[in-house]
UniProtKB/TrEMBL annotation:
Protein name, as recorded: Nucleoporin Nup120/160
InterPro entries registered for this protein in UniProt: Beta-prop_Nup120_160, Nucleoporin_Nup160, NUP160_hel_plant, TPR_NUP160_C, TPR_NUP160_M, WD40_repeat_dom_sf
Location in or out of the cell: Nucleus
Domain Nucleoporin Nup120/160 beta-propeller as annotated: residue spans: 62-527
Highest classification ranks of the organism: Eukaryota, Viridiplantae, Streptophyta, Embryophyta, Tracheophyta
Provenance organism: Artemisia annua
Length: 1485
């Protein structure tokens, strides 16, 4: 196609036509009898996607209908107007059977149908025609079924039998069908009732001759191929085309034939005619063009469209004459999709493109045929799908530009693909969803439509990263290429063209696709230079570029051919990488990018790329690629060298070439037009088209400027090799490079505005965003809220709608109709001029100042990312301008730019940036504000910013001195950072403001009233130091915060900060910093103590860390031992008041804490001199309360009565010494141990323990605590009495009752001769263990404490025997009795002597044990050595309890007389008698 003629136009998608929400409606239950069943359909079914556009009313309402071949039961309808935004809703009507490829929507011109302004005609393949009365589509949101009275059904077979219906057409109130037998039937459907006369009639010739001819030739009439309605002079005509080429024209009103013409007469025999199209009547010539599609014969593989001219007269009778065809257009069979005719043009849509043929003569460029590019080629090119290696070339080029960082390469490649996918003319809603589904990403309708542009980008990135898990650039590229390949395939499948849209009133031509609608436009001049043939565009070169002659035109064309060669050598990835470099972090300057691209032109690829080729492709393939690249490079270098030499020879000097390039660059500069329109902003279809076309033109302009920049750098690098002198090089560098850079920047920003989606408002700041966007009461502007963040709402719309629109009535543009293909240029130029230069009444301005104003608009609407990008780009240009030109003018613009950039970066960091990125943006914002404040004239420049721009107002008087203004500005910046909770930045500006305070001080140490409202320096410094304190405290810089406190000259502010410091440290658990000696308490030690004490008095006991403990540590560090002890004791008192209300688990913990407090108190007092080792806790607490802020009250206070009621029984004296504290410690320890044993007990006094304490402790087996209490509180006889009580209780716990013994089956014998009746093994192990523990405890403690009371063994033995006469005394207890005093014999001893044990045995009837014990001692006396005989003569050396022995003798006698245990008693008595006789004999001797 493009080989036959140059490209003269391209496609522009209508924004929003790809994302329609459908209202699905079905037809009501039919009352019409179904047609008879047949194996063959009555009408032809839908074999291809079919669509058409119906134009209704004035202003025109466009109805686009579609029938998808995959859903032949569904008819889709979209309604839109050019003066309104494209609707986001459409209508889907579901029929009961498949539809034929026909529908018509027209105006309802009949009475009695108010509320239904439109009529829809369609038919099913079964022969049932429908008339549906429609209202506006937006009214069908709540419907699921059409109301029955809105639908009329017509069964065609009930009225006629023409065989197969081969053609169908309709107009308002009439439906016409054509049959396979050549008959034509007319139904007055919609204008008459089906039962009315004349509802159906057949179009036939009623004249006598005509009837005769019909009878003779009826069988020869060919089937009807097509039917077309057309209105001439207010009369509806029906054009009937038969398959054999016979064309008949009928007057619908009179049913008379006006014309019969055989086209086959001028064609070869056997030609078949299938389609008929009618154009627009030329009012001047009264000629109507007709297009006929026919196939010459069956042997020819191809079709032809012949254009005929139909003449009609304007007399009383309409005379029609059809001239033979003079225009024939050949095409491949099956390639035709749709055809539209106007009065002098024919548009032909084929599968391979769209062609326009001029019927009246050649076009302005002398062409009869003009080609328009379709979107498929644009999508393929932008997504690097136009060739097999396009994506690979992008990766290799990225490797050459970013040779050192693999991550940066992957990031840049991903960013390029992602940006391309979301370009307005590439992005397609349903296509992207289908592509995500191909990669197993499924969404519901609500989920997908709720995703913003950022949300969709995140989904795509996560998908790519998941598939490219290795994260190598090549694997990532394959993932992107695979994704884009699926996207392109889905785009071509789901968005294929299926019809044309033609508005004859304006000449607008559009393209109806399966899921979108677009318009066709003419190319701009620069696009013609880029897409067209240079040799045929002399008019542009001569007039727009102002070339002086053919030589300059030839020079320019040679230059453009060189740029084309450079572009082809680098590939499509070079402009994308150049564009993307501006977004990279860190950004690369244009000079760096150009230098690296030139390196690629010299060496093809870098060594890193070569290494990558080897690792990814293999050695052999990499070597072949290297050889091929080397050949390509040599060929390119040679051609470029020869071309540049030829250019030099043609121009004679390089100055001539530079002059021509300079003129061409001026042609690339955005034109400045007079733009004074203040019309209301409208978001309509035309506005969207303007934005789309602007972005398309900006892309071409940007790439053209980049190509020229590369060519000039290439020429400069060659230098002397192409005869360029140093002067020529200097001129290029000084004159052309700055101009090119400015052009690139301007078109880059224009393209950025047109293609970058708006940010969605932050959720936390939605209310403020809402109020900002509702600038006035117009519905258009209120509707912005739901568009922000959507994929089809770019930044350019905000700029247009915030200020004005580019379409103006004085430009001759009719807003009631879609625009003509040539009418796009003026609005785009106006919009471009307004963006770059502003309105004419705004006065002269530079692009940097204009960019600042545009940034204000975007900043007002929360587009922070866009503002940062724009201002960053402009800032780079301003930095270059500082080397030349007016420094003051640059400073003014730079100051505003830096101020706005700082505000933008700050807002970005606050809203959604990650932590690392947020810190970087805060740092950059701080830098911007400091730099803005340091520039000359900053005060006047910044205060002139409009308040309604959305920026926080500075609020600084215009009459302050420069230094005072800087102080105010720093305070303003501090407040802004504080508002966003960014304490680091706020602290820096607070410190900077403090530095300015001293400079602003006057001779009298006061500020001028105009500057500071008569504030004293102390107040200002105090406020600033207080802010420094707050910010450093927020940052947890505690030492810096304390330094801010001690630096504060305002005493009141200082103490407030100190209190806050302590509270915050306490809340954050960092209060220990006050107690570790790191902070120098310069005159603030007492204040710190008071604050801590105030905090302690009003804090709950459960808080951690406890303030009393902090006070203890604080005082201990200062060596105030008594104060430390007092605070710790107050804490113990506080804990005691909380103990009663706690359960036993928590109570135990509280008691343990009390013990720790008392222990710490005692330890602290031990550090004091003994005479001063006391505290007065009651007086200490009262003094604290009196000293601390007497005007303030605690939130939780206890009245004096309640305080006295809490401790009425304590009766604590005012002073507490170490002894009293130790008493309380012992009692608290007992309470703690009892609480662990789940015994609820407390005490009220500390002089002596309560009577039941010892008993409770013994019951709980807390013997250590028992003896501690006894030894602490009892002395002398009281001590012995308490010991006896304890050991009696312990002994009883060792001795089980007889009932328990019997239950256990255990009989305790009184002697070794008695035998147990049951085994000991049956005793439960747990109980046996518990008994053993009791015996062990008894042994342990009697051994330990018998020195305090020698009779304890006797008391224990007597208690055991009293409890159980048969109990066997433990061996260790018996040994305590036998251990006599050294130097004595017999049974004499201490209070627990063998004689006492002997007496206990006798008293409790343990006669065998008594006898054995006596015999043991008698025998031991008998066995004395001779050396001991002398010593036994001493007084009481030998002593036996003879009285008790006598009692034993008598008791044994009594038992013998009573007959009880006679044998045993006699045996014992005999042994006793024998032993006594021997003893007495020995004593006598």
């Amino acid at each position: 196609m493009t080989s036959r003629s140059p490209l003269t136009g391209i496609e522009v998608p209508i924004i929003g036509s790809d994302s329609i929400k459908w209202y699905n409606l079905s037809l009501p239950s039919t009352t019409t009898a179904p047609p008879p069943s047949s194996s063959q359909p009555l009408l032809s079914p839908v074999t291809d996607d079919t669509s058409a556009c119906c134009l209704v009313g004035d202003p025109t309402t466009y109805f686009v209908w579609r029938i998808n071949k995959n859903s032949p039961y569904v008819l889709e309808i979209v309604e839109f107007c050019s003066s309104r935004e494209f609707p986001r809703v459409g209508l889907r009507i579901e029929f009961t059977s498949a539809l034929c490829p026909f529908a018509l929507i027209c105006k309802n011109e009949f009475s009695g149908t108010s509320g239904y302004p439109y009529m829809l005609y369609t038919s099913t393949v079964a022969g049932v025609a429908y008339l549906i009365r429609l209202t506006n589509i937006t009214n069908y949101g709540s419907y699921t079924v059409f109301p029955p009275h809105e639908v009329t059904e017509l069964n065609i077979q009930s009225y006629c039998d023409y065989g197969a219906i081969t053609a169908i057409a309709a107009t308002a109130g009439c439906l016409v069908i054509g049959g396979s037998d050549g008959s034509v039937g007319c139904f007055r459907l919609g204008s008459l009732d089906s039962s009315s006369p004349g509802f159906f009639h057949e179009l036939r010739d009623d004249s006598s001759l005509g009837r005769l001819w019909s009878l003779v030739s009826r069988r020869a009439v060919a089937p009807v191929s097509d039917l077309v309605f057309f209105e001439i002079q207010g009369r509806n005509l029906i054009f009937v085309l038969h398959l054999d080429g016979v064309l008949q024209v009928w007057d619908l009103l009179s049913c008379s034939k006006l014309l019969r013409y055989s086209m086959n007469a001028s064609m070869s025999e056997g030609a078949t005619f299938t389609r008929l199209w009618a154009g627009e009547m030329n009012k001047d010539t009264s000629i109507l063009p007709l297009g006929v599609l026919h196939k010459p014969n069956s042997e020819v593989d191809g079709e032809m469209i012949s254009v005929y001219s139909l003449h009609h007269s304007l007399g009383g009778r309409t005379n029609i004459l059809l001239e033979p065809s003079t225009t024939n257009i050949s095409m491949d069979e099956g390639a035709l999709i749709d055809v539209k005719l106007s009065s002098n043009k024919i548009w032909i849509l084929k599968v391979d493109g769209l062609v326009l043929h001029n019927l009246s003569g050649p076009s302005e460029t002398g062409e009869y045929e003009q080609c328009f590019g379709l979107q498929e080629s644009v999508v393929a090119e932008q997504l690097f799908q136009s060739s097999e290696h396009a994506a690979d070339d992008l990766l290799w080029l990225a490797h050459s530009i970013y040779p050192s960082t693999k991550e940066q390469i992957a990031s840049r490649v991903s960013s390029i693909f992602l940006r391309m996918l979301f370009l307005p003319d590439i992005f397609h809603n349903s296509v992207l969803r289908a592509t995500l589904q191909d990669h197993n990403k499924h969404y519901t309708d609500s989920e997908f439509h709720s995703l913003t542009a950022d949300g969709l980008k995140k989904e795509i990135i996560s998908l790519i990263e998941h598939e490219g898990a290795s994260r190598s650039p090549l694997s990532l590229l394959y993932c992107w290429r695979n994704f884009c390949s699926h996207y392109f395939d889905n785009w071509c499948h789901k968005n294929a063209p299926c019809g044309l849209l033609l508005d004859s009133s304006s000449g607008a031509i559009g393209l109806i696709r399966k899921s979108s609608i677009s318009l066709l436009r003419r190319l701009e001049d620069i696009e013609l230079l880029s897409f067209g043939s240079f040799d045929e565009l002399g008019e542009i070169a001569n007039h727009r570029i102002n070339l002086s002659g053919d030589l300059e035109r030839e020079i320019l064309f040679d230059v453009l051919r060189c740029t084309s060669n450079l572009s082809q050598q680098l590939g499509k990835g070079a402009p994308a990488l150049f564009y993307e470099s501006v977004f990279s972090e860190p950004s690369l300057s244009p000079e760096d990018i150009v230098g690296r691209l030139l390196k690629v032109l010299e060496t093809r690829y870098t060594s890193s790329v070569a290494a990558l080729h080897v690792s990814e492709l293999g050695i052999d393939t990499a070597w072949e690629k290297r050889v091929g690249d080397h050949k390509i490079l040599r060929k390119f270098s040679t051609n470029m060298f020869l071309s540049l030499h030829g250019l030099y020879r043609k121009a004679a000097t390089w100055d001539k070439v530079v002059d021509v390039i300079s003129k061409y660059l001026n042609f690339l500069v955005p034109q400045k037009n007079e733009n004074k329109s203040d019309s209301e902003a409208l978001f309509d279809i035309r506005t969207g088209i303007t934005v789309q076309v602007t972005s398309q033109v900006a892309k071409v302009m940007f790439e053209s400027a980049v190509d020229i920049l590369l060519l000039l750098n290439y020429m400069v690098k060659l230098g002397g090799q192409i005869n360029m002198s140093p002067d020529d090089v200097s001129r290029v560098q000084l004159e052309l490079f700055p101009l090119i850079q400015e052009i690139i920047t301007e078109w880059h920003i224009l393209h950025f505005f047109g293609t970058t989606q708006c940010e969605s408002p932050a959720m936390e700041d939605f209310s403020s965003q809402l109020s900002l966007l509702q600038i006035d009461s117009t519905a258009n502007r209120r509707s912005w809220n739901d568009k922000l963040g959507k994929c089809d709402f770019t930044l350019a719309f905000i700029l247009l709608l915030d200020h004005q629109r580019s379409f103006e009535s004085q430009n001759g543009v009719d807003s009631r109709h879609l625009p003509h293909p040539s009418s796009f240029i003026t609005p785009v130029r106006n919009f471009t001029s307004w963006i770059v230069w502003g309105r004419s009444e705004d006065g002269p301005s530079t692009f940097s100042s204009r960019s600042t104003m545009l940034a204000l608009i975007l900043l007002k609407h929360g587009q922070f990312d866009a503002v940062e990008h724009i201002l960053t780009v402009v800032n780079q240009n301003i930095l270059k301008e500082k080397t030349s030109g007016s420094i003051q003018g640059v400073n003014n613009e730079w100051c505003t730019l830096l101020h706005l950039l700082g505000c933008c970066l700050l807002a970005q960091a606050h809203r959604h940036a990650p932590r690392g990125s947020s810190e970087k943006k805060v740092s950059e914002a701080i830098s911007c504000f400091f730099r803005a404040a340091s520039l000359d004239g900053a005060s006047k420049t910044l205060q002139s910013l409009p308040y309604e721009s959305g920026l926080p107002h500075l609020g600084i008087s215009e009459h302050v001195s420069p230094t005072a203004w800087k102080l105010h500005y720093y305070q303003w910046a501090m407040q802004i950072f504080e508002r966003y909770n960014m304490s680091a930045g706020a602290c820096q500006f607070a410190l900077a403001a403090l530095e300015q305070v001293d400079e602003v001080l006057g001779l009298n140490d006061t500020y001028s009233g105009a500057d500071f409202l008569n504030e004293s320096p102390t107040i200002v410094k105090g406020r600033l130091w207080a802010n420094v304190f707050k910010f450093t405290l927020d940052l947890s810089f505690y030492h810096d915060a304390y330094c801010a406190i001690i630096s504060n000259p305002d005493e009141e502010s200082k103490y407030i900060c100190l209190r806050r410091f302590i509270i915050v440290l306490y809340e954050r658990g960092a209060i220990k910093i006050l107690c570790d000696g790191q902070l120098p308490f310069i005159g603030l030690a007492e204040k710190v103590e008071q604050e801590l004490a105030w905090k302690a008095e009003r804090s709950d006991v459960s808080v951690k860390p406890n303030p009393y403990k902090l006070l203890y540590a604080f005082e201990m560090h200062r060596h105030n031992w008594r104060k430390a002890a007092s605070y710790m004791y107050l804490h113990s008192v506080q804990l005691k008041s909380e103990t009663a209300s706690k359960d036993y688990q928590v109570r135990s913990l509280v008691l343990q804490e009390r013990l720790n407090c008392l222990s710490a108190t005692i330890n602290a007092l031990h550090l004091v001199q003994p005479s001063s080792a006391w505290i007065d806790p009651v007086h200490q607490g009262k003094s604290i309360l009196k000293e601390l802020y007497p005007s303030k009250k605690a939130r939780i206070t206890v009245s004096e009565e309640e305080a006295n009621d809490d401790f009425p029984s304590e009766k604590l004296e005012s002073c507490m010494d170490i002894e009293k504290l130790e008493n309380e410690f012992v009692l608290t320890s007992a309470e703690h141990l009892l609480s662990l044993a789940n015994v609820n007990w407390t005490f009220t006094g500390i002089e002596k323990p309560p009577p039941n304490l010892v008993e409770l402790l013994v019951q709980s087996n807390l013997y250590d605590m028992v003896f501690t209490v006894i030894l602490k509180f009892y002395k002398g006889s009281a001590l012995k009495r308490e010991l006896e009580r304890v050991f009696v209780a312990m002994s009883l716990k060792c001795c089980p009752t007889r009932e328990n013994i019997k239950k256990q089956g255990l009989l305790l014998t009184s002697s070794k001769n008695e035998v147990a009746h049951n085994s000991l093994d049956i005793v439960p192990a747990a109980q046996q263990s518990k008994g053993n523990d009791q015996w062990d405890a008894l042994e342990q403690y009697i051994e330990k404490y018998k020195s305090f009371h020698p009779r304890l063994p006797a008391i224990v033995a007597e208690t055991l025997l009293c409890a159980d006469r048969l109990i066997e005394l433990p061996l260790w207890l018996v040994q305590m009795f036998k251990g006599t005093i050294k130097g004595t014999w017999g049974m004499a001893g201490s209070e627990s002597s063998p004689a006492l044990l002997f007496q206990l045995y006798v008293d409790y009837g343990r006669y065998p044990e008594a006898t054995n014990l006596l015999l043991h001692y008698i025998e031991s006396l008998t066995s004395l050595r001779p050396a001991d005989v002398i010593r036994r003569k001493r007084t009481f050396a030998v002593w036996f309890p003879y009285t008790t022995i006598e009692r034993l003798w008598c008791k044994l006698g009594e038992l013998i007389k009573s007959g009880h245990m006679v044998d045993q008693c006699e045996k014992l008595r005999a042994l006793l008698q024998t032993a006594l006789q021997k003893h007495f004999q020995q004593v006598i001797l």
